[in-house]
Amino acid sequence: MTGIPKKPFVYGDWETILDKHQIASQNISCGQVVDHCFFQDQTGTWQAWVQIRDTEIGRVFTRWEQSNSFHSAPWTPRGICWKADHPAGESVGTSPHEDVIQAPYVLRDGAQYLLVYGGGPIEPGDETRQVCLGRSSDGISFVRERNADGFSRIAIGPHHAADAFLLKHNDEYLLYVGTQHFTVGNAQSAVIIRKSRNLRDWSEPRVVHYGGTCGTHTHSSQSIFVCFLDGYFYLFKMGWSSDERTAVYRSTDPEHFGHGDDALIEVLNASAAEIINSNGQWYLSSLIIPDYSGVKVAPLKWVEDVEQDKD
User: Cβ-count burial of 285 within 10 angstroms (0-12 exposed, 13-18 middle, 19+ buried)?
Assistant: First the structure.
C-alpha cells in the first residue's frame, strides 16, 4: 500500500561539517573531497566515509566521526580507512599514485554493516570497472568479502561501473550502480540495478533510468541514492558535480524510474547528495563547490506533492 506521494524540500542554512583542511596535519595530501556517506556505528556514534581524490596515492577513503548531534561541526577526522587492494583484484594495472576506489556507501543490515564501493579497473587500460563489498560487525573495522578467487568484487560492469548504492527491500538486496560510457537510448550513461538474496549471486544488470535533466553525457548518472518512503522509491542522481544539480525521480517500482524526466519530481541545488535521517530529522548533504574542500549539510523536509495527489 502506498501513502501520499512526497517531494524533498531543503530549508534553512547550509553548514560545513567536513573540511579537508582538518586532515592536512595527518600527512594526507589534501586532494578534492568528493563522494561520501553517513551512518551510525554500533555505539550510536555518527561515522562518515569520505573519498579524497588526487592524493599522492590516488583515491582513498577517510573516516570522520561525530559523537554529538549529526549536524554539529566540526567532525573529527580519523585518517585513511580504506585504500585500493591490488591482491583483492582492485584497481588492476594502475600505478601507485593513481589507485582507484570510488563512492563508498554503508548499509546497516541488522547486526552487520555492508560497505559497497567502486573498485576501479579489473584490467589494465581501464576498460571495465567493478563494484566491491566489505563487512563490519561494529561499523568501525571493515574487512573485504572475498570470493573463491580472493577478489572483493561482487559485480563487474557494465562498462565503467563507478558509483554504487545498496538498499534492502523485502529481504532482497538491491544494488544500484551509476555507469559511464554505457549507451542506452540517447544517453551515454545509465543507472542499473542488480538483485541478490545472499550478496553472492547477483542478477544480470537491468537499466532503471537514463537521461533527463542531468544530461545524456558519459557522467550523467553519478552519485546514486535511493530512499523508500511510504510505498514510494525516490532516486537521486546527478550529472557533472560542478553543476550542483541533483535530480529526484519517484516510482512505486524500484526497478523502473522511466527515462528522461518522465518521473522527475524535483531538482535540488546539491552535488553528490546523500540523504540522512537523524532521530526523525532529515538532512541533505552536498559537496562544497567549486573548490571541493569539504561537505556541507542542510535540513530537509518531505512535503506532500499536492499536484501529484490531485491526479
Answer: buried
Q: What is the pTM (predicted TM-score) of this model?
A: 0.95
Percent of the chain with pLDDT over 90: 86
* pLDDT score, position 73: 83
Task: Write down all domains in the chain, each with its CATH number in brackets.
Answer: 6-310 (2.115.10.20)
